[in-house]
Specification:
CATH topology of the largest domain: Thrombin, subunit H
Number of domains: 3
Strand order of the largest sheet: 11-10-14-15-16-13-12-24
Number of helices: 7
Shape: globular
Largest sheet: 8 strands, antiparallel
Number of strands: 24
CATH class of the largest domain: Mainly Beta
CATH architecture of the largest domain: Beta Barrel
């Protein structure tokens, strides 16, 4: 695996820096000159990251199989677990409220890594999520009180919950802390909403016929036996809005999760008679697989492809970001430090995990949504959330 991956990454780097390769029309590979340099992309880190994500998933599976508190969705977290991140070497680091010998041994067994790195923290991940879930459940009440939560997310590194409030006053903070007053809360003034970026295969361009806005297809999917495409909800959410690609109508909106307090900024386009669905991502001759992971270790390097900035990459910052856009909130989003611009919305976010006989394996993580207001991180909607909200399944190969 490691030897194959190193060989693949060397080929990929040459491809990214020096140009394109020829392929069939169905498996189109576009030139991406100078997008990623050999100095920037650390192959050893990416190799190690794959192993760390597998260890992380094993740990989460063990949490689910044991008697744990289920804090969000279907994921359970151990009462001593304080979060996890991937460090600068690619190793998984698990934060624990009490790094006592017995618990460390259990974590090592859960991950299958008996040299796992651990780090002390003050608050459990369940405590952090209790704050997030309580605030999310009371967003309408806070709005009635004249309080706008412009952003909120868990900070694994600082071991607290960041709560950004528009035009913060002492009275507004008092009302928030009446709902839940935890020492792990960091309440601060934040006057910027998140920015939505509006702009057949994941990564291809589509145009809303009504608005003229361009965006990016996330992935091809099926819904109740019907084939189509998943796009960003803010790019199109009015029923039966038509979308075109290269001047041809390719689909129309038949379902959307674009509503207040949704966990997925996504819509489903039923494909037209003039379109066809193809598994994969447009820049790669690739094998696409989906993932049901609800979160990823902070520090995981993910890739995004969109029509504006093409391929970019960056590290995951948080997994439970509450995003404010206009009059609506979007919950449980993921933020990451990759670049993006208008038109990238809906573009696939993925991991590159393997190569077999020159074919890339991309693990679909979700679709790009936009950017945060102040720190200017990218936001993406998890595939896990899209499946739960829209009832779709990615077309994979």
């Amino acid at each position: 695996m490691r030897k194959k991956f190193r060989t693949f990454m060397a080929i990929l780097l040459c491809f990214l820096v020096f140009g394109s390769v020829s392929s069939t029309s169905e498996l189109r590979v576009e030139a991406m000159e100078n997008l990623i340099s050999t100095e920037e992309l650390d192959i050893d880190f990416l190799e190690k990251q794959i192993e760390s994500i597998e260890q992380y998933q094993s740990m989460l599976d063990a949490f689910n199989n044991e008697s744990k508190v289920r804090s969000v969705g279907y994921q359970a977290y151990d009462s001593n677990y304080g979060g996890a991140y991937i460090d600068d070497t690619g190793d998984l680091v698990v934060r624990l409220v009490d790094c006592e010998t017995t618990r460390v041994d259990e974590i090592r067994e859960d991950t299958g890594n008996y040299e796992i790195k651990t780090d002390d923290c003050n608050y459990s991940f369940n405590e952090l999520l209790m704050v997030i879930n309580t605030i999310n459940a009371n967003l309408d009440y806070l709005t009635d009180c004249g309080i706008v939560i412009s952003e909120m997310y868990e900070d694994v590194y600082c071991n607290n919950v960041k709560i950004g409030v528009k035009d913060l006053t002492n009275e507004k903070e008092r009302i928030i802390r009446e709902l839940i007053d935890s020492p792990c809360m960091d309440v601060y003034c934040h006057n910027n909403d998140s920015e939505e970026e509006t702009a057949i295969k994941g990564g291809d361009e589509v145009t809303n016929s009504l608005s003229g806005g361009q965006s990016t297809i996330g992935f091809c999917a099926t819904k109740g036996g019907v084939e189509g495409f998943v796009i960003a909800g803010h790019a199109g959410h009015t029923m039966y809005d038509n979308f075109t690609h290269a001047g041809t109508t390719v689909g129309y909106v038949t379902d959307t999760a674009y509503y207040n307090n949704s966990t997925a900024d996504a819509s489903f386009l039923t494909k037209s008679q003039y379109a066809d669905t193809t598994a994969g991502i447009s820049i790669y001759v690739c094998h696409l697989v989906s993932t049901n992971m609800n979160d990823y270790p902070v520090g995981t390097v993910v890739f995004k492809y969109g029509i504006a900035t093409e391929q970019t990459y960056g590290k995951v910052i948080s997994n439970y970001y509450t995003s404010k856009a206009g009059d609506m909130y979007f919950l449980s989003q993921t933020t990451a430090a990759y670049n993006s611009e208008g038109g990238d919305s809906g573009g696939p976010v993925f991991l590159i995990t393997d190569v077999v006989n020159g074919q890339v394996t991309c693990k679909l993580l979700g679709i790009h949504r936009g950017r945060t207001g102040t720190d200017d991180y990218a936001i993406f909607t998890k595939y896990y959330n899209i499946v739960n909200e829209l009832g779709v399944a990615a077309i994979t190969n």
